[in-house]
UniProtKB/TrEMBL annotation:
<dbReference type="InterPro" id="IPR027417">
    <property type="entry name" value="P-loop_NTPase"/>
</dbReference>
<keyword id="KW-0067">ATP-binding</keyword>
<keyword id="KW-0378">Hydrolase</keyword>
<dbReference type="GO" id="GO:0004386">
    <property type="term" value="F:helicase activity"/>
</dbReference>
<dbReference type="InterPro" id="IPR038724">
    <property type="entry name" value="RepA"/>
</dbReference>
<protein>
    <submittedName>
        <fullName>Helicase RepA family protein</fullName>
    </submittedName>
</protein>
<keyword id="KW-0547">Nucleotide-binding</keyword>
<dbReference type="Pfam" id="PF13481">
    <property type="entry name" value="AAA_25"/>
</dbReference>
<keyword id="KW-0347">Helicase</keyword>
Length: 411
């Protein structure tokens, strides 16, 4: 008699799982199928978005960021927004929801500092959050959603059932896990292991109807908007229905926004890295890390604490500041040259280059160098400014200069 192919398949899966260091535990309930409901339109309930298009009930969202860029500050302000029912950074809170912050890295005092600083910065009073914000401190007692069992092969879920019960008892609608790596004791680079931990969090979300934000670290060399930049196994991003990256402003971005190098680290960008349930955002969102003094000075610590609080920030946009008439006035000056028969240059070699066309923008409308560079570069790219060789009447040598293609003028 030939072997049952289902038994053979189960044996093959078991051997593969054993090789990966993970024991497959089969669900004891019978496997069934049922006809699709074929519900249409209004008969299907809408997705229960909680915060913008980032957090949705019964799903997990992953925030990926390197250390020191403000991911904890971001998650705290999102938590206060949801708990208070009001978006503090410009995002729409669809419904107020009790919030549980699982701070699994820092002591409770540090969480208190971050909340106090954010409340001061956003002018929130105690009534705004009383009875709506809850915490679990990983320094007091570890929270373990998944771990290897005593046999070293099976996956156990030590705190899953207790956490589901507490979420239900306290009517929690939003849960922050910061950081995800401290919520399990599995192999971080194993896809089967991380899939088990991520799936456990997804099951908590489904069982309680809450939205879950997992805060995670990046690997070295990660870039903005790249979901693959998450540290460890890729299964975590695969299990999430939304993922975001938070990264520091690059030197090039700082130059274009006229941000000093010593202040660049205080500006961060949020990018959609994965958005399965909603259209991806059209562009990066920017935030600033403000410093808030807590006023907790003591004789031993006379300066007290300053805590970073994240806030929405809008990059300067020279195109919004200049009208069509302004732009054409700039082009008139560039077309006329410098008055000595010399054309302006399209390339920038520092402020010493007095013939750089960007100087015209800066002089006429008090625009900073980085913003002026954005205007000139955009015009060169579009062909409105054309750079070519000409005979310089002053130096009597060949030189590079720009002319204006009047057919492409704005307006």
């Amino acid at each position: 008699m030939s072997a049952d192919p289902l038994d053979a398949y189960a044996a093959l899966r078991a051997r593969a799982a054993q090789a990966s260091g993970l024991h497959v535990v089969h669900d004891a309930s019978p496997l069934t199928i049922k006809p699709a409901s074929l519900r249409r339109g209004a008969a299907i309930p809408p997705r229960e978005w909680l915060y913008g298009y980032q957090l949705v009930r019964r799903y997990i969202t992953v925030l990926v960021a390197p250390g020191g860029v403000g991911k904890t500050s971001y998650s705290v302000v999102v938590a206060l927004s949801v708990a208070g029912g009001k978006g503090l950074m410009g995002d729409w809170v669809h419904a107020q929801a009790n919030t549980l912050c699982c701070g699994l890295e820092d002591p409770e005092d540090e969480f208190d500092r971050r909340v106090a600083a954010a409340m001061d910065h956003y002018n929130l009073d105690d009534e705004h959050l009383a009875g709506r914000l809850f915490i679990i401190s990983g320094r007091e007692r570890r929270l373990v959603i998944a771990a290897l069992d005593a046999d070293g092969m099976s996956i156990a879920y030590p705190d899953k059932d207790a956490l589901v019960r507490l979420i239900r008892e306290n009517n929690i609608g939003f849960l922050v896990v910061d950081p995800f790596v401290n919520s399990h004791e599995l192999e971080e680079n194993s896809n089967p292991h991380i899939n088990a931990a991520a799936r456990a969090w997804a099951e908590v979300a489904d069982a309680t109807g809450c939205a879950i934000l997992l805060v995670h670290h990046t690997r070295k060399g990660a870039i903005a908007g790249d979901a693959d930049g998450a540290r460890g196994a890729s299964a975590l991003i695969g299990a999430a229905r939304a993922a975001m990256t938070l990264t520091s402003m690059s030197p090039e971005e700082a130059e274009s926004f006229d941000i000093r190098e010593d202040a660049r680290r205080l500006y961060v960008r949020l990018d959609d890295a994965k958005s399965n349930l909603a259209p991806p955002a059209g562009k990066a969102r920017w935030f600033h890390l403000a410093s808030v003094a807590l006023g907790n000075e003591t004789p031993a610590y006379p300066k007290g604490d300053n805590v970073q609080v994240i806030e929405a920030w809008e990059p300067p946009d020279v195109w919004k500041e200049l009208s069509v008439a302004d732009l054409n006035a700039i082009l008139d000056r560039i077309a006329a040259g410098n008055g000595q028969g010399q054309r302006f240059s399209g390339s920038r070699r520092g402020r010493s280059n007095t013939r750089w066309a960007g100087n015209v923008v800066m002089e006429m409308f008090d625009v900073e160098e980085g913003q002026a560079g954005k205007v000139i570069n955009a015009w060169l790219k579009s062909g409105l400014l054309v750079e070519g060789e000409y005979s310089d009447p002053v130096t009597r040598k060949k030189a590079q200069g720009v002319t204006v293609d009047h057919s492409k003028r704005p307006g």
